[in-house]
């Protein structure tokens, strides 16, 4: 139906696939089908990015709990992709004093980065469940990997490194608060693994992307401390 240019027919065909995949707990297949359905629905509405965001958010809210982390990560990537395609617009906009509304066309740099952060944080919120989920169970969604699964053995590893890519982007430095967290070379950032893992940086800047990256690295190290390899 897609190849014939019939998005509405394709959407109807996807609905039982989604229901069946959810019933069988085939999360990767279900999420792949949901993502395609959302993309087709947005295409019908004029291919506006905000249509995809709103529809995927609605699907995430009603999805089974064990599917939500990956769906949140997809949302984060969709917003991130939108930012990268419109970077010059966000970099030119003056930061607003008030809270920007729901219209993404009016968002400033801080607002779009905050939205991406929100979805990555939601994706990683249930870390216990993610640590018990093997990354191989999502091959249907991700496709074949160029490296063995042991490099990212669980979905916690996979999503943590996805989030780290975002927290370490250069644009983060353009949004700073008055008491922004500053990374000092004399801190335990270059210390031995044990000392770094126990480090508790003191800062009132809880929104700091650097601080979030440090905590994610600490969580990954703690998770794999007992690994043989």
Structure description:
By secondary structure, the chain is mostly helical. Helix content is 58%, strand content 0%. α1 packs antiparallel against α2 and α6 (109-124) packs antiparallel against α9 (155-167).
Q: Briefly note the structural class of the backbone.
A: mainly alpha
Q: In which range does the helix fraction lie?
A: 55-70%
Taking Cα atoms only, what radius of gyration do you get, to the nearest Å?
20 Å
β-strand number = 0
Q: Round the mean pLDDT to the nearest integer and report it.
A: 90
- Poorly predicted ranges: none
| Count of DSSP-assigned helices | 11
- State the end-to-end CA separation: 48 Å
SSE pattern, N- to C-terminal: HHHHHHHHHHH
Q: What proportion of the residues form beta strands (DSSP E)? A: under 5%
Mind describing the biggest β-sheet?
Answer: none
Quaternary structure annotation? single chain
Q: How would the global form be characterised?
A: flat
In short:
The protein contains eleven helices and no strands. It has helices at 7-23, 27-44, 49-62, 68-85, 87-92, 109-124, 127-131, 139-142, 155-167, 193-198, 209-223. Helix 3 (49-62) packs antiparallel against helix 4 (68-85) and helix 9 packs antiparallel against helix 11 (209-223).
What's the structural blueprint in terms of helices and strands?
Layout: H1 7-23, H2 27-44, H3 49-62, H4 68-85, H5 87-92, H6 109-124, H7 127-131, H8 139-142, H9 155-167, H10 193-198, H11 209-223
